[in-house]
């Protein structure tokens, strides 16, 4: 890739629950850009972020933030107002994709299967189970499996759930309740290129105990990544198809990662999309750079690809194009 030497501001850190992951992603990105000869300004985001960006005057911003407010449209709106090019998805896409219920409303009508379920309040949980057990409870707009709980018949949370029991109901006023889908954890990364988005492949995540939560994602040795996943060809193809379709329908840019559960006893009917992450991690344990490396794309080249896509999208915006949901460019 023949990118000119640029001044890139790398946004990282912030105050979200995923701060530590963001700092790791941002450090890796900044180091990679410097190794390619770019000038880098590292910004651990605080409330003065707009002032610091205005002072830095970068050519492009690499958004390495995770969670709220870096992934939910807040930072994207600020960068749009400042007229700055930035990596990953825009405001509308970010607003929709961070919200699991809005994501269902966007994707399911396009033939992408997702678990059913509904929003429940903590008070409802204390009165009765919203779904037959086992079921999953998750915050509506958190990433990295933060605050996810699986409620089973043998759970020690009570029946109905006790307000004294440890769980996400103690942290969040509302939660999304979904039926638990047994089976295998799969994920597929998508990157944009000159000929449009393409899936890099499918990874299976094998966890010895529990499920693929925050601790398993970011603690070395807790999860085995099998790439390419040992799957029937039709399941691999379907995962890749749904991942690219979700990327396009939501209007993602740069890269995204779509997570699945597959009940291998049910064949194609057992495959469900759980969510699409618009700003996947770039840490040493992250799945997008791992899949890219297996496909012959070194980490530093992947980072430059995301920067190049940001400049392309920003140029299109300046000419009157869109940068949000339903924009498949």
Descriptive overview:
With 329 residues, the chain is of the alpha+beta class. It is 33% helix and 22% strand. The protein is built from ten helices and twelve strands. It has helices at 19-35, 49-56, 74-82, 91-98, 100-107, 122-127, 214-218, 233-250, 287-294, 299-318, and strands spanning 7-12, 39-44, 60-63, 118-121, 135-138, 149-151, 174-179, 184-193, 196-207, 223-226, 255-262, 271-277. The strands form three sheets. The protein has a five-stranded antiparallel β-sheet with strand order 10-9-8-11-12. Helix 1 crosses helix 10 (299-318). The longest helix is centred in the last third of the chain and has 20 residues, at 299-318. The two termini are 20 Å apart. The model is unreliable at 211-220 (pLDDT under 50).
Pick out its properties:
single chain; 329 residues; alpha+beta; 5-stranded antiparallel sheet; 12 strands; globular
Q: Which helices and strands occur, and which strands form pairs?
A:
Blueprint lengths: L6 E6 L6 H17 L3 E6 L4 H8 L3 E4 L10 H9 L8 H8 L1 H8 L10 E4 H6 L7 E4 L10 E3 L22 E6 L4 E10 L2 E12 L6 H5 L4 E4 L6 H18 L4 E8 L8 E7 L9 H8 L4 H20 L11
Parallel strand pairs: 1-2, 1-3
Antiparallel strand pairs: 4-7, 5-6, 5-7, 8-9, 8-11, 9-10, 11-12
Helix pairs in contact: 1-10
């Amino acid at each position: 890739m023949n990118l000119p030497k640029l001044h890139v501001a790398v946004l990282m850190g912030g105050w979200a629950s995923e701060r530590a992951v963001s700092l790791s992603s941002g450090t890796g990105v900044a180091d990679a850009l410097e190794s390619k000869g770019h000038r880098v300004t590292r910004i651990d985001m605080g409330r003065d972020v707009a002032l610091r960006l205005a002072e830095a005057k970068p050519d492009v911003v690499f958004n390495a933030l995770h969670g709220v407010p870096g992934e939910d449209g807040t930072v994207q709106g600020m960068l749009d107002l400042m007229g700055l090019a930035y990596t990953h998805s825009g405001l509308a896409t970010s607003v929709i994709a961070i919200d699991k219920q809005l994501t269902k409303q966007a994707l399911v009508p396009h033939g992408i299967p997702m678990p059913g379920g509904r929003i429940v309040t903590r008070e409802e949980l204390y009165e009765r189970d919203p779904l037959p057990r086992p079921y999953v409870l998750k915050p509506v707009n958190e990433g990295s499996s933060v605050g996810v709980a699986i409620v089973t018949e043998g759970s020690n949370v009570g029946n109905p759930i006790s307000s004294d029991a440890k769980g996400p109901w103690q942290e969040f006023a509302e939660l999304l309740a979904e039926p638990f889908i047994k089976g295998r954890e799969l994920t597929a990364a998508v990157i944009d290129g000159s000929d449009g988005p393409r899936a890099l492949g499918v990874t299976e995540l094998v966890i010895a105990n529990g499920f693929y939560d925050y601790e398993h994602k970011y603690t070395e040795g807790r999860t085995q990544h099998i790439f390419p996943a040992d799957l029937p060809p039709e399941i691999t193809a379907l995962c890749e198809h749904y991942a690219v379709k979700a990327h396009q329908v939501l209007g993602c840019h740069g890269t995204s990662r779509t997570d699945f559960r597959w009940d291998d006893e049910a064949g194609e009917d057992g495959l469900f999309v759980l969510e699409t992450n618009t700003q996947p991690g770039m840490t040493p344990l992250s799945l997008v750079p791992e899949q890219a490396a297996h496909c012959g794309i070194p980490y530093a080249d992947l980072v430059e690809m995301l920067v190049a896509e940001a400049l392309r999208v920003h140029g299109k915006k300046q000419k009157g194009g869109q940068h949000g949901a339903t924009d498949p460019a």
